[in-house]
Amino acid sequence: MDRGGRPLVYWLSGGFVFRKVVSPFHKLDPRVKLLVSGEFFVLSLAASSVVEVALVLAAIVSVAAVAKSLKRIGRTIVFSSGFAAFILVVNILFGLGVPNAVLYSVRFLAIISSTSVFFVTTSPDELEQIMRWWKLPRDVVFAFVTAVRFIPVVMLDAFQIMDAQKSRGLELEKGSIPRRVRNTIPVLIPLVVNSVIRSGELAEAMESRAYGSSPKPTSLYGLSARWYDWSVLVLGIVLMVGTLYIYRSVRFPF
Amino acid sequence: MATKRLSAIRPAAAFEQEYRLGTLASVSGLSFRYPDAGKWALQDIDLHVEEGDVVLLAGPSGCGKSTLLRCLNGLIPHMYPGELRGEVTVGGQKVAETPMASLSQNVGMLFQNPENQIFMFSVERDIAFGLQNLGVPRDEMRSRVDETMRLLGITDLAQRAPHELSDGQKQRAALAGVIAMRPKLIILDEPTSLLDPRTAMDVVGMIEELNHAHGITFIVVEHRLELLTPVADRLVVLDAGRKVLDGKPMDVLADERAGGFGISIPPVARLYTYLAKEGFKLPRPPRSPEELAQELQAT
Amino acid sequence: MTLIEFDRVTFVHQTGTVALRDVSLRVSKGETVAIVGENGAGKTTLVRHINGLLKPSSGAVRVDGVDTRKITTATLSRKAGIAFQNPDHQLFSESVESEVKFALRNFGFTEEAIAERCDWALNFFGLAEYRKTSPLVLSGGEKKRLTLACILAWDPDIVVLDEPTVGQDALQKEKLSQIVKMLQATGKTVIIVSHDIEFLWPLQPRLVVMSGGRIVADGPTGQVMADKDVLVGARVTQPQLLRLYLALRVRPDKPFFDVPTAERWIAEAAP
Questions:
Q1: pLDDT tens-digit map of B255-269
Q2: Residue B94, SS3?
Q3: Which of C250, A115, A220 has the alpha carbon at shortest distance from B143?
Q4: CATH superfamily, domain at C2-87+157-238
Q5: Contact flag B270-C259 (C-beta cutoff 8 Å)
Q6: C39/B266 CB distance under 8 A
Q7: Of B183, B3, B26, C17, which is closest to residue A208 (Cα–Cα)?
């Protein structure tokens, strides 16, 4: 079923939903993609001045450009700016002092963006491969991957439910806060019910295809790093160490 | 008992022969009641399915069709315990005593909603899902996945994600996932009810091809009987948990009692019955309105 | 009197797909219109414009003279009720009774009117015995009837049925047929989106065929369905009785619209 005019939430969440793209970054072994995002994450945390965070953000944006996903990462930045501003205001109100408050909020922005880079460029199947590599239990891996696979489906359900209830006179956009919260019940209950029904159907399909019969399921594809992956890995580590060194030795104005 | 022509796919058959291929699935005296239910969902069902048959299973909502299907593929009693009497045997295996892992390689099941049968993010990985669960080694998995995609004509969809597929393609991909396990019997629970008529006909065409060219046996539950009567060898009607009619599709539809059981009798079948009642016995049941027109003109 | 008007409507999704292309359609008060076409042809997108769930990217949709962009869906729904395909997308109340009253409360009816209309709807749809039951435990057919009861309770002028026969057995479809006839008898404007040609054929509505976001045919059922080329292009099948009629060399002036009519003709035409 098609749906146009998607609400803001759906648009914003695009920053964390995988989209198939052919790019030098997408091609990487998913473990390297995880590592790169992890490096951005660590560098954001380790930064002690806004300029340092800006460096990390610049690097994130460049990787997003290489991954042809600028628009998507852009959405994440927009999405987290709101929260970042909130953090800024709260910190100032709690007497933290403007320079530190700004640092914390900008750091937040960078951290969220680094995780966004990972989720936008890694498919649920690749997530599964990473989780298997970590030797996580079969059921945990399956539950996680299935959840990610069905996020867009459940969201579509939610919109169809909202349509159905709006057609019965439910006002989702007007009214006081308590009223609006109450008005989410006619949307949440069918959503939960539908998800339960869906889980039942999935369980039947799983059982019918012998899920759980072997403690060690095999897989169609395995992870194998090629020279391309290794070079990016090494480059990443070198850059991270270099950046940490710069953090320690250079004193930035703010 | 149904007989079936051997097609050229069977290596030994360079010529056509009529063979009785034997019973693939047999249900005797089957009764089933869900836990805490007052009514019996199935009462004393007897059913024999010959290998190579396409069996159409029909009946009003709540008649027990879905329950019967689940007794055949093992979901009952392995996933849905309850009070089970009688015996169900498929491919030599007693369903109640055989674990799902083993059963799933004999009986596959396709469900109504294509969306809820595709687990992986790419078609080929999803086709491999069942094989992964069974611990099939990678090389064999690869060749079976490729072979299955070729069989269903979806090799070009291998890397696609489920949301990039149309409903018809999703149903085909889901069917591929079932066929990869190489079952002899495939059960379909209203596989086309969410599809438009043309896409539904594509699915039926696929069933026909898989049956004729590869000898796979099918049991299909469907409300829109006119879609499957051209392809089905038998029509079995259930009502309130009991089997009430069982025979060649057009014979069953022509039966006077058929209308009383709440199944949708296609107009052509209803007219055939009417003509028979009025004393106009047509040489054979018409399979399409055009055939009926021809036969009317001939009398 | 034109009740629903689509004036050169184009609708483009946020992804860029064009779902409706330059669609113009006028529905008069009291008409019954069936919209057919394959999945993805734009039928569902079209009807979601009627109560304002979707607003056109260009062109205008007017219901009872008012442009749908000027009022909210909640207000438009008072006039145009849509029965969606999946009842599980709607049912949430503790009881069937409160489910029916939900929309009535939203539309601001008085407590008296709410009680009265609820009683009527439950009785009419044969759900009175389930008054205090949870809607979630009803059977598929009962849930469908409940969603219809909810809509008819607030008595909209326009009733839209979105794929009402999907997954329904013969008896349920027969009941739906009767409900449509009842709606027609009470002067409602009925829009049915369906790909179940056999269900639509005996009702003989005005038939609109959609394909690729456009309307490719619009006219009386018998006329539209006889044009095989258009139907094949739109991937729509012809009903069996029409095919029979067309295959006969000697036939009456009009196609048979149900089996009893065909039987009568055969009885008369036969020696």
A1: 888 888 889 899 998
A2: strand
A3: A220
A4: P-loop containing nucleotide triphosphate hydrolases (3.40.50.300)
A5: yes
A6: no
A7: B183
